[in-house]
Task: structure prediction
Amino acid sequence: MRDIYINGLGTLPVGEHWETSLRELAVQAIQAALKDAPGLKPEALFVGNMLAGQLSHQEHLGALIADFAGMRGIEAVTVEAAGAAGGAAVRQAVLAVASGWVETALVVGVEKMTDKVGAGTTAATASAGDSEWESVQGVTPTALAALMMRRYMHDYQVALKDFAGFSVNAHANAKTNPKAMFHNTLTADSFVKAGMVAEPVNMFDTAPEADGAAALLISAQPAAVRVAASAMATDTLAVHDRPDLLNLRAAHLATHKAYQQAGVGAEQMNVFELHDGFTVFAALSLEAAGFAERGAGWKLAQGAIGLSGQIPVSTFGGLKARGNPGGATGVYQIAEVALQLRGEGGANQVMGAQWGMAQCLGGAGATAVTHILSKN
Amino acid sequence: MEISRHWRLQQQRYGLVGEVCPHCSEKIFPPRDVCPHCSGEAKTPYTFSGKGEVYSYTTVYDAPEGYEGTTPYTVAIIKLDEGPLVTAQLTDVDNGKAEIGMPVEMVTRKLREDGDRGMLVYGYKFRPQLAVSV
Amino acid sequence: MSQSISDQLLRPVRDVGIVGYGAYVPRYRLPATEVARVWTEGTGALPIKEKAVPGLDEDVATMSIEAARNALSRAGIAPNDIRAVWVGSESHPYAVKPTSTIVAEAIGAVPNTQAADWQFACKAGTEALQAAIGFIGSGMARYALSIGMDTAQGRPGDALEYTAGAGGAAYLVGAAEEALAIFEGSYSFVTDTPDFWRRQHEVYPEHGQRFTGEPAYFKHITSAAENFMTQSGTTPKDYRYAVFHQPNVKFPQRAAKQLGFTDEQIKTGLIVGVIGNTYAGSAMIGLTAVLDEAQPGDRILMVSFGSGAGSDAFGLRVTDQITARQKRAPRTKDYIARRTQIDYAAYTRLRGKLVMG
Result:
């Protein structure tokens, strides 16, 4: 199998793009990525998206976006894995190029969370869970994270304030990322006092769902950033079916497969763009990836995750402050790791970054997609 | 109108009818015909007692469509006495009063109604075990 | 048992009885003082202390399922031996689509069973009970399940709002040999008397004010009780307990007095003061309260009343099977003791009286 590189990337600001449609967002991100990789012509398009069917009444995004991006005729398909759709779309692109079937693949992650508002949107996000055995009980993604967080706090004797560091760090980094959704400073004190959404998950714990699009050009042509590993795994869909609720098994499997492919371990990573949709997911992701012992992931939030810390996370704001545009998130994460390795992080640069890991989760960790990138 | 997806699950929803694996004796809910523990074929029906305890819980304030009229409500993961975990709403208990380890029992309640004209969907919820006199 | 039997007394060819019984009352209570606070600024006499109010996730189907499960626990029979599931109510969740099939599915009685919903205001449940006596007593089947359950609504500010409560009971009827209480005949007294009704698409019923008293409740209850006792050859002192339909505290007390029953005889079954008028469940849950305490050999008279109007009267003799079965399920008093007080605002939300759109 041949080596794969990220040749171009383009990301849009994450936010509420009331005036921009789904297809327009996708096309803008694609054009930015193409501009970043002049001369490369994609033969295949992989779209990462989770909810366009329910929120915009639009399925069949592959053909739609290929059409509007001026690429009529190329093979195109939507890849869906709930919140991991973006990473999963990159995975498909990597498989296509690595196999030799495709020379240059284009990935675009795009999501229009604001095309629907209210309880209908909440119901749509709940479709990432088990509709027959979780959602029918009025369970939402936030409620599932809350069920896991409460059990985590119970089993490990951890308090709410112990999670604040994840959100505080995310906001601190987002301040200097012009494409981030939030630029305000968040203090640990305001985190602890925030209103509850689904106790113990509060308003400053949950990442904002918003609109966004990010695109990548992937090919075998050498570039500054190499795809050192691409791995994916699943766990039970329903949280209650897991023998161990506090083990993100899919994340564990995917990261360890990725370490094996790349020939490196957690200690080599200079940056980890993890799926901080909820602070408890951040803690559990760090444990699953081997950065902390079981039940100790929260400890890293007490100073080890900053830009100059032992393992920087959410370096451009993460899901929490850069924003969480659903099926596009996984592509943003990979683009951000690529920027770090290229040395283009600006005020958010992690000094001397050589290796970076990006991981997105679908649902409450039922799907995990992990990519490791290295500086070529 | 969604009818069949609820109708075909009535035994599970109304009565917690699951399966028991004839190979390894594990109890399975919901039924899935393949044992998640030993991967053997498992189609023998098994009716759970409905008794269990709260494994985790949370109160939902921002409900999805169809559930807005009933907020705030508490959802929980329940550990059934026979082993499996299930996700369900708690009922007959004030929202702040749930606790991990609280003994509960299954009751059949209305899960949702689809507006004024639509179907009523019934299913299992769990309540603190009723205190009975001897 | 007296030998004088006329053809108005209903007796099946084989003796039948109650094999299992179960009650259900929801947890919420609205004190009558709350209704008065909102509507009369706290003045006026109160017909009861408080009434039971169903939760948002409860209705006649869910409540019937629990009462039926309690009856099954007491009876100790297999649900698929039940051949009729009959639910009587004036607040069935659907106008068309039976409550009884939901109950039958939930308790495991389907598919080899009859199922039907009954209505006759507050005697819908005892109607189902009369029919069950015939169904089992004719030898057609081994067991029938008859349920009286309601979540009836009272018009805001109306006299009936103080008392319109929620609750009821389920009875498994089977052969006398298996029964914890054997029926000693029954009787029905019915006339076309429009004391209280609800037209097809209306939310709240109408009632005839004072017309609901003498020409309706008292005439039918006392006629049914007297005719039943005459034809059975019994008098009030032959019964340890009497249970009458209880729309409020005073009516059954007055009926008892008119008929010659003492306060002591009606006391155990008179629970309207703490749960309200459970309509089709009223006499039937009064009976469960009695069965919870009754001893072998006790005789009980139960007389229901349904507006429209009619009364069903039943005589029962408790057997020695009762002692073991009383404790197999929650007693009526356990449900009564499980109470969470609410105010009028919470009540309007729970009862769907708020204009939502």
